Amino acid sequence: MLKKVVAIHDLSCVGRCSLSVVIPLLSAMGVQACPLPTAVLSSHSGGFQDVVCKNLTEEMKLFSEQWEMNKLEFDCIYSGFLASVEQIEITKEFIRKFTNGESLVLVDPVMGDEGKPYSLITSELIANMRTLIAESDIITPNYTEACFLLKKEYQGSDVNWRDLLPWLTELAEMGPERVVITGIPDKDKLLNLGYEKSTGSFFIASNQRIGERYPGTGDIFASVLLGRLLCEEGFGTALYKAGDFVAEAIAATQELNLPVREGLAFEHVIEQVNL
User: Fold this and answer.
1) In order of start, what are the domains of the chain with their CATH numbers?
2) 192 Cα distance to chain centroid
3) Which of 72, 86, 171, 223 is the most exposed place for a label (fewest CB within 10 A)?
4) pTM here?
């Protein structure tokens, strides 16, 4: 049966991130992606100037009302960048309206990177993000976002990944059944650490660190992870495959010598998403 996912993300028209990667990747894995856009941007803000943004907060409410009126049902709700506390509250209400006992909720708490919050992220928004992850089944923060959620100090490349294993269980205690912390530096590697609460299992996925830090990497990772889970693969297998796909996309992008601000050229390796 075809799975149907609501993707609550922004749409950046230039630069591969958010809905411009979520929709094609889920589609390639045989999953229907139904976008609930939070905003439309002329481009993402990483390396582009004078970005034009149309906020769609009010439209999010209208979309939700129309979908509820038409008695739509979804197998999964997948949220990404949310630009305000109000958008977080709308997403929480959407989860309550459209989930049933079998629906999956993945929250990618997009708030910052390299120890710094993104421009629109406030302490109030971070506090409210903690209430959103309480409604989730899976969360995929990067290392910086895990620091924000747990009020921990960011240590940069000096962090020891073993010290982060208790963080996984702390995050799981906040609500989600499964937790992934992505992009943890470990010498010449990048690690993705996973934890499954029901089994008490930890997962460590390692990939070679290659070149630059590209925008949209977290969106690609979370989308592939989700797609593999909806294809009924195990959590550990899905985590490893998501990391491997990102590594393949980075290698392809470097071979093409594309500007970092263009994001990952995942189109060139998309056939590998189902391997």
Assistant:
1) 3-274 (3.40.1190.20)
2) 13
3) 72
4) 0.96
